[in-house]
Amino acid sequence: MQQQLILYLACAWTLCAGSGDWCYQSQFSCDHQCNAPENWDHASRNCAGRSQSPVNIVTRKTMKDDRLTPLKFENYQHIFRGLIKNNGHSVQVGVSHPSTISGGGLSTTYKAVQFHLHWGNNGGPGSEHTIDGEQYPMELHIVHMKSQYSDLGTALRDKEGVAVLGFFYEMSNSPNRKYESLINALRNIKPTNGNTTLSPIALAELIPPEQNLTSYYRYKGSLTTPDCSESVVWTVFENPIPLSMDQLKAFSELRFQNGKPLVKNFRPLQPLNGRTVFRSGGAAVMISSALLVVALAVGLEVSQPN
Ligand SMILES: [Zn+2]
């Protein structure tokens, strides 16, 4: 009897929750069942936590923090030949040289470990974070851990062990030449587990110039994939990186393990649950249009010559 019950429960689990690995909704199908985002807490309890990422950043609710000065980037100019891999959830590039970030309200120095991306379908909405409800076509995550640690596993057990820099992309009319190395490599890693060596690049080439990085948002959150550890200090930059439509579409050529297009690999938005999102001195606040009309009217009144 008990054995039957166990068997029944095992079947119900498979039918309702999917079985095996975690996946994005875009990968889920009846013949390939997996734990889609609403069931990630079956893969890891952390995913049901109260400080999860990504979040929608409502700019008028952010709090300005004068300690959020420009970050200090060190060795971001270092040119390296990284290994790029389709890991079945994203494309990821390992960073093995000591590129670090500090300042900007961070409690210590963090070193870069890897970077990866989240995107939509053929240039459609695909970022994880959103700003006032706007979803950008893609988002870059440069993952760092405190310099004192030698592996990410240890860093993830520290409440502030990991610092991720998030950058949005926007569609531009001309291709971004600095992305040629990365985008050319995608052709060689279409199937899951495909990997190849990138032609030499520097992290600094992938992100906007330093003088355009003074506006950013900061909050405490989690990894956006299982195990969803709540050990991430998030920095989300306002200034997007330009890519042409063709460059954005190249990411949709990649494949999940089951052969379906690797697209829409972003986690659904998570509730803030009372957390505050802080903004640096430079970050813009969206003024409501009603307020703007009043401000303009007052402005006109004042400027009317008597
Ligand atoms: Zn990510």
From TrEMBL:
Q: Which reaction does it catalyse?
A: hydrogencarbonate + H(+) = CO2 + H2O
Q: What does this protein do?
A: Catalyzes the reversible hydration of carbon dioxide into bicarbonate and protons and thus is essential to maintaining intracellular and extracellular pH. May stimulate the sodium/bicarbonate transporter activity of SLC4A4 that acts in pH homeostasis. It is essential for acid overload removal from the retina and retina epithelium, and acid release in the choriocapillaris in the choroid. Reversible hydration of carbon dioxide.
Q: Where are the transmembrane segments?
A: none
- Record CDD domains: alpha_CA_IV_XV_like
**Keyword Heme attached:** no
Q: Which Pfam families match?
A: Carb_anhydrase (PF00194)
- Family statement: Belongs to the alpha-carbonic anhydrase family.
Alphabetic keyword roster? Cell membrane, Disulfide bond, Glycoprotein, GPI-anchor, Lipoprotein, Lyase, Membrane, Metal-binding, Signal, Zinc
Q: What is this protein called?
A: Carbonic anhydrase
Q: Which InterPro entries match?
A: CA4/CA15, CA_dom, CA_dom_sf, Carbonic_anhydrase_a-class, Carbonic_anhydrase_a-class_CS
